[in-house]
Each structure stands twice: as C-alpha cells, then as structure tokens.
Specification:
Layout: E1 4-14, E2 20-25, E3 28-30, E4 34-38, H1 45-52, E5 60-65, E6 68-69, H2 70-78, E7 81-84, H3 96-107, H4 113-121, H5 136-147, E8 154-158, H6 166-181, E9 186-191, H7 194-200, E10 203-208, E11 211-217, H8 218-227, E12 230-235, H9 238-244, E13 250-254, E14 257-261, H10 265-277, E15 282-288, H11 292-301
Parallel strand pairs: 4-9, 4-10, 7-8, 8-9
Antiparallel strand pairs: 1-2, 1-3, 1-5, 5-6, 10-11, 12-14, 12-15, 13-14
Helix pairs in contact: 3-4, 4-5, 5-6
Length: 302
Amino acid sequence: MQNILVETQRLDYTFRSGQPILRQLNLQVPEGSIYGFLGPNGAGKTTSLRLILGLLKNQKGNIKIFGESIATHRIPVMKRIGALIESPSIYLHLTGKENLELFRLSSGSPRNRIGEVLRIVGLTDAAGKKAGAYSLGMKQRLAIAVALLNDPELLVLDEPTNGLDPSGIIETRELIKSLNKEQGKTILVSSHLLTEMEKMATHIGIIHKGALLFQGSMQELQRLQANKALITVEVSDAKKAAALLSEFPVQQVNGTQFSVSFESRERTAQLNKALVQQGIDVYQVSVAQHDLENLFVQITNQ
C-alpha cells in the first residue's frame, strides 16, 4: 500500500459571507505521485491548497502532511515543501539568477543550489537575462525553480499552465513529469485543463462546488471511462431506429444520430445488421470513448 504524503480529513471551509467553499474534503495524495486536482474555477482548488500550506486558518477538519498534523508541526513540515500558488512572485527588474539568489537567502539554501535548479528547469542560458524579458512560460519555470530551492519532497503547484501558449504548456508539463520521475518529487498540481492532466497525472481528484466527487489512480479513472463508452450511429431515420431497437437500449437521439452503450465489437456488428434488416440506411458507426472532459461533466452532473 502506498504511503500517503498529504491527507485532509473532513475539511470544511466557509467564507465570512457565509458561503461554503469546501465540504467534507478528504484528499489523499500518495507518495511518488503526480496528483491532478481537477475542477472548474471557483470549485475550491486554491482554497484547498492554501489550507494545506497553512496560508489560511483551518476552520474544521484535519490536515496531515508526511504523517504530521500541520496544526502542531507546521514549521518542520513546510521546510520539506515547495509551492507555487497562483501567479509567479518574481522581480521583473532582476535577472533570473538574481531572483533565485534573493529567494535563496531567505530560505537558507546552499549557493550551489541556484545552478542546479536553473539546469532542472532549463533556464541556464537565460540566467543573466532580466526576468521582465522572459516569456510567460519562462517566468513560470523560474517560479518553479524558486519552489525547488529547498529541494522539497513535495511540490504544490496551483494552475501552473494557466495562460500559457501551447509550447509553454508542453514545456511545463514535461518539466513536471521530469521532476516526478527523475527528481523523485511528489507533486500536487491543480488545474481546470482536464485533458492536460490526463497526459501527466498518475492520480486524480475531481472537485466540484467544494465536494470531492472522484479520487483514485489514472487507471481507475480510465476503467470508469471504458465502462461509459458509447456507440454513436448515424442513420437515415434516428427516431425510427431507436423505436425498433428494443434489444439495444438507446441512450440519446440527436438529429440523424443516436447512441447506445458499447458492449463489444460483436454486439456492434449485430446492431448494424439489425438496422439494415429493418430497412434503415446506416451511414456511420463509431465507438466514442469518453475523454476526461466528458467524464468530468458526467460526474459533476450526477
């Protein structure tokens, strides 16, 4: 059984206005994982991460990191964590290296760590350039370099690809995967980019309106996706086809198309044969397996 690095137990949080933000949140981030914390804007992701990092005062519930309660062991626990919450906090008039030196002094990290983190995030050649001249993707990587100065065991990243162009998204994604595989970092990363998480995360937590709707490994999520695969059929008369197919329960009819649950290739062939025998022209039969975004919509609607 995997060791759990971050655990929240029945975590609740309510704004002063009385608006509830988190509802009985039970996160479990396994050691060695890239845990994708997914949800739309306003779902409670950033609030959850701020509570985990001790940036907000906990109202109700428990938070354990490395098996220790942050209520009683916050300082030693936080020394083992690196974090990037919301926008990068870097000084644009300083070079990349000067930014790192400034943060190194405040964290007490060794001087040689600057060169190491610049190499890790791919900014060695840009170390002497003013941060104001960096692209948004480079600024994000510099901010991640700052979070890596203390060589943390756990890295917490809040929407690290938000606002980036496609090349910046790819660079950040590959950096996160490298930090996990090559540097051995456990990474808790929030995002609303569902397809992006599908490309990098080993574990997934889906939050909606402050409640955790799904939590598990990517393999478990993929099995859930497989169970919800659909056959989409385009025919000459979808309503007539749906009425005739009592053996194949139709889930939805849309214009010239209808959908039924996918069971097997053989059953798909039987469906096609039944339609042709009833005098219905079949233009196209395709298996549409749900991607992560469609699955998210299904889960949140439930």
